[in-house]
């Protein structure tokens, strides 16, 4: 991926687009054997189910996006964080004075020769028109949490889940539409909402053991602040 490829990969893509790839790859056995947690969801045999496999996991993914989005947008409008393009253009246009901007940042912005705010981004129409913080792409991309609850994943599978979540999240900063802080906040918000909503949903929808699931969500939860993307696959295991 080039930087342009990264930005384009998270431009107007459908919900669960990239997460669908990791679901497909994991269920195909690309990253090792697949074991469902039968106290969360039951499969009839040892092989990957179709309806209770790819269909069910895709439903969970879109359900998660829907539930997270309501909370995320409430947080966006509560915070009211301006988009990077708004701040950059305000600096370029002199609305934010040079004395209020770190020297190197000011120099970098002025080198861009911005004619319009949207020129700061990788997209022809610029950023979405809602506030920046927390990032919706990040909040919606929490497959590295909920898929750990549904499956008994291998360390490699967990690694790939976290890589896809981080990549989807950070690519929006590469595109110039989010600050890095938006990404971390979104990833953490998405996980917290799923911790609260997942046990009842999986119990109601797939007849899982709700109390067991409540215990498991605590066991598999993790802090994105402690994840170093350069070492995202180190010491990842679950049993």
Automatic annotation (TrEMBL):
GO molecular function, one term: peroxidase activity
Superkingdom to which the source organism belongs: Eukaryota
Gene3D superfamilies: Vanadium-containing Chloroperoxidase, domain 2
Protein name: Phosphatidic acid phosphatase type 2/haloperoxidase domain-containing protein
Species assigned in the record: Helicotheca tamesis
